[in-house]
Design brief:
The protein has six helices and twelve strands. The protein is of the alpha+beta class and about 270 residues long.
């Protein structure tokens, strides 16, 4: 009789433990997913038909592993005193290499010469920094902005034309018509002009002449500049709707002013007669 009572109590205790365990894990599963990390712990799993089993639960996280976003590239400019590297390769203000040096030495040099440190190549070993003045940094920023602006955007079509400054008038008109067609399709058009020998034609005036023929639709994306000796280039683009409205308004005001001046000249000449 005593044995029967003891067995009954053990079974009742086992049922209670199972009920509590089910409630515990059901609560975990129905909770809102949050980033929780559980430390390893020993779990006792009672089973009335088997002996007690011990198991080690491994650490786990209820949230998905966050994907590492690529580090955005910092804008070109002074890094101040925020240098994470111990050894640097330093270039001086004139572009000459000063060799590898400790971070503290580079900062001391920066303070002594009243210059700024700029990161040039982070992937190099060791990373390359340059000592620059504020004016040098500003000029380099302008160059990089111009280069980025001139580079075609993804999906943008860029056409290219190249010819000599001694181009014949008929050939120039043909090329200008081709440029106008490309601009109409909203393509970017890169024009390269080579200075011909014994030619006194100003390449920059030639660029302006081409733009003048398509001025109702096009403007400079990249203004004319000398890329190397005897070679100049520019890039034209189609004007935006806002730019077109501003251009049309300006032309209307200009024509109105011209007509007004002509009327005044006409009245003045009539009075003198």
């Amino acid at each position: 009789m005593t044995t029967f009572c003891v067995m009954k109590l053990l079974r009742q205790a086992t049922r209670n433990e199972n009920r509590y365990a089910k409630r515990f894990f059901a609560t975990l599963l129905t909770q809102t997913p949050q980033k929780r990390v559980f430390s390893p712990f020993w779990m006792v799993v009672p089973d009335p038909r088997k002996s007690t089993v011990f198991g080690l639960a491994q650490p786990f996280c209820t949230a998905e592993k966050s994907r590492r976003e690529p580090k955005s590239k910092a804008a070109f400019g002074s890094v101040g005193r925020r240098i994470p590297y111990r050894i640097l390769h330093v270039i001086n203000q004139d572009g000459e290499s000063l060799g590898n040096m400790h971070r503290a030495e580079a900062l001391k040099l920066m303070d002594q010469q009243d210059l700024k440190l700029v990161l040039l190549r982070e992937n190099a070993e060791p990373p390359v920094y340059r000592l620059m003045t504020g004016q040098q940094i500003h000029e380099e920023q302008l160059k990089r902005a111009e280069k980025k602006k001139a580079s075609p955007k993804p999906g943008m079509v860029q056409k290219e034309l190249s010819f000599s400054s001694a181009i014949a008038k008929n050939d120039l008109e043909t090329k200008t018509k081709q440029i106008a067609q490309w601009i109409e399709k909203k393509y970017h058009v890169k024009i390269t002009i080579r200075q011909a020998k014994d030619s006194s034609t100003d390449m920059f005036m030639l660029f302006d002449q081409i733009l003048e023929t398509v001025s109702e639709k096009a403007t400079y994306l990249s203004k004319p500049k000398v890329t190397r000796e005897g070679v100049s280039t520019c890039i034209l683009r189609h004007m935006s709707d806002k730019e077109l409205k501003a251009y049309q308004k300006m032309e209307k005001q200009k024509n109105s002013t011209v007509r007004k001046d002509e009327n005044e000249d006409l009245k003045s000449s009539e009075l003198h007669q």
